[in-house]
């Protein structure tokens, strides 16, 4: 089962950048929940915590396209080091403000600056696309990245919750910032696997000429983000209602553990089912799982259902990434994936904001209903987008069939020239 993973990790430099990339994107799993917990503890308001977090998430989403274009054009090292500095400054300002019970608008400034962190989740995926050649290997690599993300989401929220509730309210933010400084420094020092900057190859960006499949995947990511944002803050509220707030991170970790297992199994297999079909079925599984989660009446029941529901998360994220990889050129990968991050970020912001209000004024289950409703809406989005995703990603299953990401320089490919079918 693990043979495909061993194969891709044997490429020179792959293990090193995979590990460094994992550490560098620690904020993906810890920053948001740590900021929410810090604000909620210091100001005693879920609504305010969700509001502040939403501001940061919107900014993070909006910055992904311009920073991704800069990364593709100038190179990862040139762009990411200054953004790393901004992230540290924002985190520091946020901690200082919260611990002195400063005005909310200062927290807004802090979270805005800290959210100018660049496309952390796309850096290693772009490196995989740079060193691998076949669809099968790239599918496995993206599944591995999804699994590594779930390692973060298993440990990150639990660690953040424990640190915030038992050690010091901003402790999770401190650990997150230190992790990304160390990881990104190591990652950016590895020049051999870094994709060539578009400025050196003469390539061009996507601009607003987005392939239809990328737009469809971005709307699916919007639904995913709304589900995640509502679920995260509702889980904290649910655990508090049960009298076990310190275990909220453990619940989030259990759901991520389910996603980890699902991602491992999904990425270990080379699928013959068409990508658009797998995308639709992934959203159906999420809708069923998170719908059942609303029936939870206790911590154990929540954990058991959450583990099963989480199994569809990593495969669905892998499908969205793979859609983009198949329809854009190699030197546009970071920019193409940034549109998924925009959809995800806007969704998380909306979900966290509304769920924070619902948890404060109605109860944790109201937030869980929002998460389940978002997952259900995602099924409709996937069905509506499936024709354009099918046109953009289906191609003959031939030995020499290769991704648009591998086309010659200067050759614009909006979708594979010959449908169908995997």
TrEMBL record:
Annotated protein name in UniProt: MFS transporter
Stretches for region Disordered: 393-422
Domain of life from the UniProt record: Bacteria
Lineage per the UniProt record: Bacteria, Bacillati, Actinomycetota, Actinomycetes, Micrococcales
UniProt biased composition (Basic and acidic residues): 393-410
Pfam families, A to Z: MFS_1 (PF07690)
Residue ranges crossing the lipid bilayer per the database entry: 16-42, 48-67, 79-99, 105-126, 138-162, 168-189, 210-230, 250-268, 275-293, 299-318, 339-359, 365-385
Sorted UniProt keywords: Membrane, Transmembrane, Transmembrane helix
PANTHER family to which the protein is assigned, alphabetical: MAJOR FACILITATOR SUPERFAMILY (MFS) PROFILE DOMAIN-CONTAINING PROTEIN (PTHR23542:SF1), PTHR23542
């Amino acid at each position: 089962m693990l043979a495909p993973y061993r194969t891709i990790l044997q490429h020179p430099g792959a293990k090193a950048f995979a590990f460094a990339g994992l550490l560098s994107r620690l904020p993906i799993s810890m920053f948001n929940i740590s900021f929410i917990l810090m604000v909620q503890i210091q100001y005693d308001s879920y609504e305010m915590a969700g509001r502040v977090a939403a501001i940061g998430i919107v900014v993070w989403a909006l910055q992904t396209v311009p920073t991704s274009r800069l990364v593709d054009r100038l190179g990862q090292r040139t762009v990411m080091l200054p953004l790393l500095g901004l992230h540290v400054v924002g985190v520091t300002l946020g901690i200082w403000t919260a611990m002195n019970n400063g005005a909310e608008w200062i927290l807004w400034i802090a979270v805005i600056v800290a959210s100018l962190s660049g496309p952390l989740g796309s850096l290693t995926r772009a490196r995989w696309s740079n060193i691998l050649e076949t669809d099968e290997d790239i599918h496995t690599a993206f599944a591995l990245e999804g699994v590594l993300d779930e390692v973060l989401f298993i440990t990150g929220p639990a660690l953040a919750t424990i640190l915030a509730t038992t050690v010091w309210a901003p402790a999770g933010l401190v650990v997150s910032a230190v992790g990304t400084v160390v990881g990104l420094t190591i990652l950016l020092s590895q020049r051999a696997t870094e994709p060539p900057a578009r400025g050196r190859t003469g390539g061009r960006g996507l601009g607003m000429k987005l392939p239809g499949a990328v737009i469809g995947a971005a709307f699916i990511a919007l639904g995913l983000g709304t589900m995640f944002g509502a679920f995260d803050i509702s889980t904290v509220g649910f655990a508090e209602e049960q009298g076990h707030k310190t275990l909220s991170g453990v619940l989030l970790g259990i759901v991520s553990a389910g996603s980890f297992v699902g991602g491992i199994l999904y990425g270990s297999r080379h699928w013959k089912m068409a990508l658009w079909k797998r995308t639709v079925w992934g959203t159906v599984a999420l809708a069923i799982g998170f719908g059942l989660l609303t029936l939870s009446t206790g911590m154990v029941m929540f954990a058991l259902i959450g583990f099963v529901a989480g199994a569809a998360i990593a495969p669905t994220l892998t499908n969205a990434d793979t859609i983009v990889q198949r329809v854009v050129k190699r030197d546009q990968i970071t920019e193409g994936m940034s549109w998924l991050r925009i959809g995800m970020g806007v969704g998380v912001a909306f979900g966290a904001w509304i769920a924070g209000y619902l948890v404060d004024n109605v109860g944790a289950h109201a937030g869980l209903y929002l998460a389940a409703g978002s997952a259900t809406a995602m099924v409709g989005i996937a069905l509506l987008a499936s024709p354009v995703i099918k046109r953009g990603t289906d191609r003959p299953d031939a030995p020499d069939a290769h991704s648009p990401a591998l086309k010659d320089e200067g050759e614009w490919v909006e979708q594979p020239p010959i449908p169908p079918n995997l």
